[in-house]
UniProtKB/TrEMBL annotation:
Enzyme Commission code: 5.4.2.8
Pfam families cross-referenced by the UniProt entry: PGM_PMM_I, PGM_PMM_II, PGM_PMM_III, PGM_PMM_IV
Alpha-D-phosphohexomutase alpha/beta/alpha domain location: 8-132, 152-251, 260-365
Highest taxon of the lineage: Bacteria
Residue span(s) of domain Alpha-D-phosphohexomutase C-terminal: 370-444
Names of required cofactors: Mg(2+)
Record protein name field: Phosphomannomutase
GO biological process, one term: carbohydrate metabolic process
InterPro entries according to UniProt: A-D-PHexomutase_a/b/a-I, A-D-PHexomutase_a/b/a-I/II/III, A-D-PHexomutase_a/b/a-II, A-D-PHexomutase_a/b/a-III, A-D-PHexomutase_C, A-D-PHexomutase_C_sf, Alpha-D-phosphohexomutase_SF
Keyword Magnesium annotated: yes
Amino acid sequence: MHDLSGIVKAYDIRGVVDEQLDAAVVREIGAAFARLVSAPEIAIGHDMRDSSPGLAAAFAEGVTDQGVDVVEIGLASTDMLYFASGHLDIPGAMFTASHNPARYNGIKLCRAGAAPVGQDSGLAEIREMVENGVPGFVGRRGTVSSRDLLAEYSAYLHELVDLSNSRPLTIVVDAGNGMGGHTVPEVFKNLPLTVVPLYFELDGSFPNHEANPLDPANIVDLQAKVREIGADAGLAFDGDADRCFVVDENGDPVSPSAVTALVAVRELAKDPGGTIIHNLITSKAVPEIVTEHGGKPVRTRVGHSFIKQSMAETGAIFGGEHSAHYYFRDFWRADTGMLAAMHVLAALGEQASPLSELTSEYSRYVASGEVNSTVAEPTQRLAQVRAAFIDRAGATVDELDGLTVQLTDGSWFNVRPSNTEPLLRLNVEGPGETEMVRLRDEVLSIVRG
């Protein structure tokens, strides 16, 4: 029997290879997944980590042991696996630990049509099955076939965003030795783009920097190269290339909220009056801009399961998060940083202004970024923050996810506890730097005592 308590997370399975995650465990997880989804075949993809091909093969053994066929798509970004699941209408499994260090690996699972499998939608059942012993199967063993979907994935993205009429652009792309080095050359070829590559060599040891573009330290090389060559823009992908971070021609980061607003406007132009999902710590510019362009903004909790659930319930055409995850109805409601990047490049290439000028239209306020504080009693500190603001004149308070307070000067903040650590996460936004800093420091003084 296996103990999966340390590796089954809210949205995926993740752990240290050989210590928590080995071929034997993964084989059983594959068998359990096959029983969960009751499908005739399952797609399996993997990233460039040294452990990924072997773990993917063990998972395939577990699947075929249950009489289910496997379609191996080989090296893939996570959104390529979602494409396989949607395009072929079969469940899928992606072997990746995203931006985690090399010693980690993991599995992202989805049902047919890229429908997510999380703690409340299948992961708990898989854990229970594996820990109690997956029942055996008597009958025909499943088969394994291979299919290269990279060209079809690229062609589908080009159907959704047409870059062929863009003015010529020079862009720097930092793949962080992750799967962007596999997908970008195919997706961006034969377009009016000059791509200057950084760290396209697939290397799961991440020799140059962590493949996590939300950490400012990991986009320094990208920023420097953009400035050095006078590029029009820079793109940074995370390890499994489902998230994309953008910098402008000055090397300055473009906030994911501004990208969300920009893409929302473009999607609304195709589908007037559509619903756009945003989580509660994106800039308040996002719902303002969506409303101004005739769309219907819907606010959700933080976390991709909430975004996807809300998209399904509302029929939303697009959703964006502060973490640079972007979700598209036309991509089976799954997240794809590549498609968001293509929207940004298309918007840039359709007009003459530089990216900084283009995105300034979508950047109306000053944000703190996420400020984390380690505290012994998160619930108690959260209550103290609430008490300090609940009776403030004109303040509005809601508790959809942690505590969100909006003040009369246009400033707002959200403070919420981490699901896994004794942390409080604070996000603050104000009409200007002065208001934002004042509010941030006031809340932090309560949080940190």
